[in-house]
Design brief:
The chain is an alpha/beta fold. The chain folds into 2 domains: 91 residues, FAD/NAD(P)-binding domain (3-Layer(bba) Sandwich), CATH 3.50.50.60; 80 residues, no CATH class. The protein is 28% helix and 24% strand. It has a 3-stranded parallel β-sheet. A two-stranded antiparallel ribbon has the order 4-5. α2 links the parallel β2 and β3. The N terminus is likely disordered.
Amino acid sequence: MAAKSDPGISQGAAVIGSTVAAIQTALTLAQMGVEVKIITNSVALGWDGAASGVADNSPPDQRFLWPLLLRMTSHPLITLYSNAEVESIEGKKDDLKIRVVQRPRYIREDLCTACGRCQVECPARVTSLLRGQRITHSAIHTPLLGPKAIPSAYVIDKDGFAPCHVACPLGINVQGFVSLLGTGKTDKALALINEAAPL
């Protein structure tokens, strides 16, 4: 049974990283009644192999990791900020404020079912570094951990350029077109296409 805490002490905690140790720490704190924010620069949990003491930087044993991830994601006191980094920490010992910058996935996590249809249709290819190896894959892809990643929503790698725009043979700003259509601005969407590829 957890001891009652002093009401003057904040119950919030931030755990930075996505290692097995970080996930276990977040779970332990949450089970003690502490509200926990997990902040990781990875797009999915469980990948920081080097930080968890795995010598070859390979992902931890999925048979051990997966149950931890399921317990963590279903805990009401744990909130995950993936693809994020700490920008600053300010304040005093008992009153710290952490400023976090979360980079976009360019995919809505709440709508993505990780079905893979977008990856099949995407013609753009990018190169990533995975465990010291360069791999080429679709610009839109599941987190490199695979379908059991948390979150499992797909991500678009942009790295300073719009891969869909580059892959389009007509040079159309595909993201701009889709965004304009999504907000009901059909005239502007058509103008965007006509600008790149006049009829």
